[in-house]
Structures are given as C-alpha cells and as structure tokens.
Amino acid sequence: MVHRLSGSFAMVILANFAATLACDVNLEALFEPYMSPGTLIAEANDANFSDVASPRWSEWNSPTWTGAIKPETVQDLQNIVRIASAHNISFMATNGGHGTSIIYGTVTGVDINLENFDTIKVDLENNHLIVGAGVKLGNITEPLYNAGKAVPRGNSPCVGMIGATVGGGIGFETGLYGLSIDALESVRLVTAKGDLITVSDNQHPDLMWAIRGAGANFGIITEATFRMSDQPNNGNAVVGSFIYNSSRTLDVFEELQTLDDILPAELGVQLGISYDRTTSESLLTVDMKHFGTWETFQPHWNTAIRLGYTSATVKNVTLVELFANLDGPCQSGVYINGGTVGLGRTDPQTMQEVFEEMTEFYKNYPGYEGETLFQRYANNKTLETPLSTAVYPWRDTKTFWLHENIYTEPALEEPSIRLLLSLREKLQATSGFSEPHIYINYAYGDEGPEGWWGKANLAKLRKLKAKWDPKNLFGHGTPIFS
Hints:
- Pfam families: BBE (PF08031), FAD_binding_4 (PF01565).
- One of its GO terms (molecular function) is oxidoreductase activity.
- The protein is α+β, with helices and mostly antiparallel strands.
- The chain has three domains: 7-113, Uridine Diphospho-n-acetylenolpyruvylglucosamine Reductase, domain 3, CATH 3.30.465.10; 120-231 and 455-467, 2-Layer Sandwich (Uridine Diphospho-n-acetylenolpyruvylglucosamine Reductase, domain 3), CATH 3.30.465; 234-453, Vanillyl-alcohol Oxidase, Chain A, domain 3.
- 31% of the residues lie in helices and 24% in strands.
- The chain has 17 helices and 18 strands.
- The strands form four sheets. The protein has a seven-stranded antiparallel beta sheet with strand order 15-12-14-13-17-18-16. It has a five-stranded antiparallel beta sheet with strand order 5-6-10-8-9.
- It is globular, with a radius of gyration of 23 Å.
C-alpha cells in the first residue's frame, strides 16, 4: 500500500523524527513507505546507484551524493520534499546534470532525478507547449516541427528544457523570439512546504518574476507551459560553417563589430576558438544558423568568402536536422569547467588577444581540449520585454562569451582556471558594461548574486526567498544569499 503524505502528516513525521541526523538516515526505510511502486531509491554505495541518480556531464567539482531517488509521480516529489525538510536532509533536483558552477562541489545530499517527468504536449487550441521536468531540449524538436511551431530555446539537445529556461534561455532563435523566459507563461511548482501550486503572471506574480531567471531557488518545477510562435521559414534553415586560420581572425572580429547594431533577427552566429593538434594551429570557426531562404543567406556567404575561409560547409536543412546536429555539452566522462561574461560591444583587438592567449595555452598544454565561444544573437526582441517581467537583468547583452575548459588530466585544473579568469577579466574590461553581465547558466560560480541577477533586484529577490523557502532547501548551486 502506498501512503500519501499530507501537510498535517508531515508535521507528525517532523515530531517523530526531528532528532534524526541526515548521515544516519536509511533512505529506503524513511522514504519508501510514502512513494509510488515505481519510485527508485538507492544509497550512494548501492550497486544500482548510477541507475537511480541523474547522469553527470562533468567530472569536475561534482556534488557529493549521499543517495538518489527517482520519483514516479508529482505526489512522490511532494512527499520527498516534506520528509527531507523534516529531517534536515539536503537534496537537489536534477535532470541533465550540466551545471558546472564551482559551488556544486560544495553540495552534499540526495539527488532527486526528474527523468520520469518526460511528458510533452503541443496544445494547438491554446497555442501552448507543455513540458515536464524531465524533458530535454532535444525532445521538443520534432513535436514542434510537426506542429509548425517554435518556442525560444537553448541549443544543446541533452540539456534540460526547464533548467535552461529558468536561467534565461538563449539560443540560435533568440533574435526571432527573445528569451525562453519571455515565452514561459506558467509553471507547476512543488514548494518548500511540499505544496503543489501554479505560478503565473496571474497567480503569485512576484514568484513568477523570480522564477524567470532564478527558478532553481524556489522549488521543484514539475511542469512548464510556454507560448508558441509559428516556426520560421516553414521549418527550414540554411546552416554555414566557415573555418579561418590565424592570418584572418582579426578581419573576422572586425566584421563582427560591424554587426553590433544591425544583426538580422533571423541570423544566429557563433564564433569558436579551437585547436587542431594534427596541424598544430589554432582555428576560428564561424557557425551561422540562418532561419530564412537560401537567397537571403547568400550575402552572409559572400561576406564569409571575402574574409578568406580555408574550408566551408553550407547546406539547407530542416529545423529537426539543425537542432539534432548541435552537439553542445553532450559529452561526458571528462573534466569540464567554464565561465562567461556578457558583451555589449565587439572589441576586435580584445578578441584577437583572446585568440592569441588561447593559442599559447594550447601549445603549452598538449592535453587541453577546451574552447572559447562567442555567441551572437540579435537582442531587439529581447529588449521588447520590460525588465519588470523577470529577475533576469541582462537584456542588453549582445554577445554571450562562453569558455569551456575540457581535459582528462587533473593536473590541468589549476592552469585552465587561470586561463578562464584571465580571459574573463580581459573581455570584461572592453565589454562596454561597468557591471559584469553574467548569464547564470554559464556562470563559473564566483561572480555572486549581483553578477547573476543585478544589484537592483537583490532586495526583492531575497524577500521572496525568505517567504517561499525559509529553510533554504533549493538553489544550492546558485545561492541568493552569499
């Protein structure tokens, strides 16, 4: 028989077990009586632990899991929160496992794996996409394509849809549709009390403001509803990938500067610095995703030709093909850490200095496999949405710099982090912003709440945190109080 844990019964649990220490808890004995039959529970040293816990992207600074629970139902989630709160058991709800903030290495507790909440519904009548907490970005591509619809979304297919959204939500279609949080109309949320509530602009609007940018700090989102738009160009796009050697990089950066105020909404551009160890040279790859016709892409291709690429791939694709071929952070089993800063202007000389510093690092550390990315999306649509709708503050960002250190040798940790911090300081100095603009989904973790959410937002954000999560059950990876 499965027991259902009500709010009043949670108080009985608290009274009976308040003195229990988390380290002495037998997870199965404590949680299983109140779980559905399909819920899985494992201690960290159990043979099936890896089947119950969420997979982890990076081996670097991982949380220390004392156990894992993979709940089957929303009511299971409610019971987990109530019991864990009563016993002072730390936990974190996870899906894709892609956070690399340095703070994650300080987290100890139970992993709540949301994989079972993988429902997707395209509601054409109400123009809504409704996704569960276990849905990955790759899961929504075909349902949206088949319906002729789109929502603003991140790029990497293995990243959790809701997790990517509540940090802001950027991607190649940002120029067309704005941020993911701008299409987020409502969520179903398990609160710190274990209650299940609906949050929207009409129900708990202040909390909705906080969820749009800091959602991980206020509960476990079980379901999210997005407003859909018509998909661009009848579901087709032109993709171009152009590789430049070191003799042409400054010209490319100068060309990017000319687009600072006129980047077309239908064009997303990503510049990536990497290293070819066969030829022992650094390369700059310019990836273009053009959500328009071949004819309207031709001028961009002409520019790429003029800049003198060494090789290129250009083709028409469906949106299914486009998003299926965006690998992003989908590898695992290596050490990965990263960081970011937002740019309000393009400074070609600084970007060239970044290229040269990366080149020197590649030469000095043969085992290093990292890369630096400059993600450029038109922000006109993003700026149309008032700042007052969301705690996310950095709508004037034009380019998102993302640096990823990737390596297999632990000895590379210290020098790679020095590289990251050096590049970040260099780019911040010429970013055009006096206040660092930190996209929280890419954060290194040392920037703090002002860098993630802006100083002007902190008083309201902290007041809401104290109201909705007074025991600080949620948001351990990006804490509001620090």
